Amino acid sequence: MTPTLVRQHPPRTGAAPRVDPRVRARDWSEIQERMLVPLYEAVYERLDVGPATRVLGLGCGSGLALLMAASRGAKVTGVDTCADRLDLARERLLPEDRDAHTRDAARIVHGTPAQAARADAYTVVTAFEPIGCLFGDAEGLGDLLAEAVPLAGRGAAVVLSGWGPPERCATTSVLRVAAKLAEPLRGTGTWRPTDRDDLERVAARAGLRPDGSGRVACPFGYADGGSAVRGLKSTGLFDPAVTATDQAQVDKELAEALHPYQRPDGTVWMPNVFRYLVARTP
Question: Domain 21-169+191-219+273-280 is in which class?
């Protein structure tokens, strides 16, 4: 749900729908990833991310959040399991003509947080994938934090995020299509609303101490209905629905759900609010 929103993981049961992973990753990078930019900016501003900051980005995708941290002078490391998204992250963060400073300031790791250990501990760990979206469920996020927290220094900030109240998130009604169509395949890891205390529960299970939270407006805006469908499908949240039904039905119902948010000029605009929690390592 991690703008959102969002990871490209296959459904846990049933046959995965046929998609071109490179096209999916490009749609994520060019259309959907930017939707959470206000969230990234708010978190980095609150934590005063800068040259003294060492960021570990969990589920970094195609690297936009890392790029924003790097532009503030931070040293960044991104971890993800989606090779196609990581290829795009490398294009952004590790250009072939980079200088020695840039080379030392950014790393991209294909694998797990444990593979991202570095000599100097991280000062900020981010999990911008909203809880309720694929790896952002409590169990999956807990596993990632179990590996990541030992890599952070004492008192380091760990940032978790989630959807705001459903009544303040227009995209909720659209994402419910994914959950409804995937109903025959229970437990496939599709979208669900974030509970009020989800972030605090995950932090507590990871042994973290809450240290403040905030809400950020993150509207989802698209050039047209087709772009909206491509962007939302790039999150992977509709894959279980495609497996349970078929691509044509998902596209049809998704377009219908988007119709109330399409403006006279053809653009699509859905106001949303996201919540983040800052927690601290022991």
Answer: alpha beta
Sign of the torsion angle spanned by Cα atoms 224, 24, 72, 134: positive
What ranges do the domains of the chain cover? 21-169+191-219+273-280
State both tokens at 261. Answer: 């948010």
State the Cα–Cα distance between residues 196 and 193, nearest whole angstrom.
9
164-197 confidence digits (pLDDT tens): 998 999 999 999 888 888 775 554 445 666 777 8
Closest CA to 148 of 39, 12, 279, 264: 279
Q: What is the pLDDT of residues 193-239, one digit of tens each?
A: 677 788 999 999 999 999 999 999 999 999 999 999 999 999 988 88
